[in-house]
Amino acid sequence: MPDETQEITLLETLDHLLDRGVVIAGEATISIGDVDLLYLGLNVVLANVDAMRRTGQK
Amino acid sequence: MKSVVIGAHLRREDVEPIAETLPVGELFLSAVSIANDRPLGDRDLLIEVAGIRGQLLDRATFIAIRYGLAVRDEHEAAIKCIGFVPQWRKLLDAHREEVEMTLKAAASAPPARPDRHDFASGGQYLRALHEASRAVDVDPQFKTGIERTLVPLATEHRWLHRDTTSIELAMLVRRRDLETVRTAGEKLRRDFPKIPFLLSGPWPLEVFANDHQQ
Questions:
Q1: Which residues, in sequence order, are bridge partners of residue B70?
Q2: Looking at B46, B70, B94, which one is the last position of a domain?
Q3: A13 vs B contacts (CB less than 8 Å)
Q4: Shortest CA distance from A38: residue in chain B
Q5: Mean pLDDT for each 10-residue chunk of chain B (214 residues)?
Q6: What is the pLDDT of residue B112?
Q7: Are B103 and B6 in the same domain?
Q8: What is the tens place of the pLDDT at every residue in B18-64?
Q9: Model ipTM value
Q10: pLDDT tier at A45 (50, 70, 90 boundaries)?
Q11: For the CA atoms of chain A, what is the radius of gyration?
């Protein structure tokens, strides 16, 4: 099943890109569905952008 | 324009012409230039960077920098990365002939994931989640099989607990041993046909770069 194999390879490649390696200081806004997620390069922080903004304003 | 940083390399020729080069101290960062208003979460950009990462690894081993670091120019890159350069240099010198391989396997009896509502604070919940992840293991016979077939081919290895449903083995492998590792993976699949696992790589220095950083 080449399609499934290609899909697994892509997912694995993106997992390594997004979740491995040395963390310096960076962030990316990634959309899943219609929800923007703020990715901080740290496993523990994956939050809705609106929630992060509200937290920051307090 | 801004530059999305991919990795740290020993030599300029390890990067060019595959990617843009940003010199930092005695090392070179690889990067991709994009328009300032292009979001880092752009799917096509992620796939493009992943592809360039693979081409760079074909050229030479490098230290992977987690996706998300974008800089305006060399000056900003130097400010953010110069403190890492001595350690990165040592790592690249030590492991220039090696790459990482990973094996992900499903947990044999995954522990129940903690329910957020059972905890009074987020901190308690995260600690419980961490403990549950640490308790994950694979079938003992399968683990023995891995330790007999794959681990001896690695120059270093590390078991990682990332979540409550799987366990991961990260290995440093000499480039010349890559085919032998893949063959050992196939034997493992024949010996344990009912256990789902994924052997992938080669990858740049990711897990082991972080280990040494800490």
A1: B4
A2: B94
A3: 50, 54
A4: B41
A5: 96 97 97 93 90 96 93 92 94 95 81 72 72 68 91 94 79 96 94 90 92 49
A6: 67
A7: no
A8: 999 999 999 999 999 999 999 888 889 999 999 999 999 999 999 99
A9: 0.79
A10: very low
A11: 15
Contact at CB, A20 and B206, closer than 8 angstroms: yes
Could you tell me if residue B203 is inside a domain?
yes
Expressed as residue numbers, the domain containing B178 is 98-209
The CA distance from B160 to the nearest CA of chain A, in Å, is 12
Structure-token pair, residue B189: 């699949």
Residue type, A54: R
Q: In this complex, do B198 and A19 lie within 8 Å of one another by their Cβ atoms?
A: no
B164 and B121 both lie in a single domain: yes
pTM surpassing 0.90? no
Question: Residue B95 is which amino acid?
Answer: H
The enclosing H or E element of B32 equals: strand B27-34
Measured in angstroms, the CA of A9 and the nearest CA of chain B are apart by 8
Which strand ranges, in their side-by-side order, compose the sheet holding B166-174? Answer: B156-160, B166-174, B98-106, B197-203
- Give the closest of A8, A39, A44 to B68, CB-based: A39
Residues 1-58 of A with CB under 8 A from B: 8-10, 12-14, 16-31, 39-41, 44
At B101 the pLDDT is: 96
Structure tokens at B193: 């046909």
Taking each helix axis from N to C terminus, what angle separates B140-149 and B178-191, rounded to the nearest 10 degrees? 150
